[in-house]
Amino acid sequence: MKNTNYSINSTIIALSIVSIFALLLVWFVPQVAGQVSPPPENPQSGAVGMQGSITAPAPTQAATITVPSNGQVFSSVPITVSGVCPPGDDLIVKIFKNNIFSGSAACQDGSYSIEIDLFIGQNDLVAIIFDALDQAGPPSSTITVFFEDAGVASVGRPTLSSNFAKRGANPGQTLTWPIDLSGGQGPYAVSVDWGDGTTPDLFSLEFPGTFNIEHVYERPGVYNIVIKVTDANGSPAFLQLVGVANGPLAQEDMGTPTELDTAAATARVLWQPAALLIPFIISTFWLGKKYQLKSIRDKIERGERPF
Prior knowledge:
The chain contains 2 helices and 16 strands.
């Protein structure tokens, strides 16, 4: 009988130690988990990055110029150049006059329309389609037009140009665009219509050169940006470009991937050990209760007081 009681007592003591250890572990793990540092932010010093490119065939169908007509003569600017462009996503049309970039527009529903200015005299106009990778399609047929301006000053007319026909930013972020101004006579009055219904930006420049225009789009979309400059002699210059506001990427009501991963990992640290230790705790109390009942029954059989 003593051996049996000794065996049971040993089992109870062992299981009690396990229970105490389990309770301490369940209490201790959250304390440690609360001090776990989140994963380091990337990029990290010494990290190795990978770069790749996605290739696609260049457009094979040319855009056309339907307006203006060949040989047409103009006495004022801007003029509208419009035509047909091939179907496709993210295609833009660039207009070149005398091989110089003069404006761009998105190809929408198979057509485009661009406002441009002209050089004095002959202007050879060519439309070229470009895809999202800035790959050029075949050029259109050349349309030759003429511009006569009797009021031009000796310093010539102002001219606007840009290295970018298309530029974009996320909604809520600042889109910055460098513009080159040459010719004409300062000071210059500058107007920038961003194509989203907001009031055009108005400012002045004392001298020609490179200047930046900036804007924040509130909603995603493709917008026609029209820049107009008028010099001190009243001679204008125009440049139309394509501004893109990308789809909204930031979600204010959601954490970053790093925060979400850290929260999920913390939840696993907190609950998995506790779930594994629950059966040990239940079995310990069950065996303890069983031993207590057996001890009382043995005392009653021996005629002893159970308590």
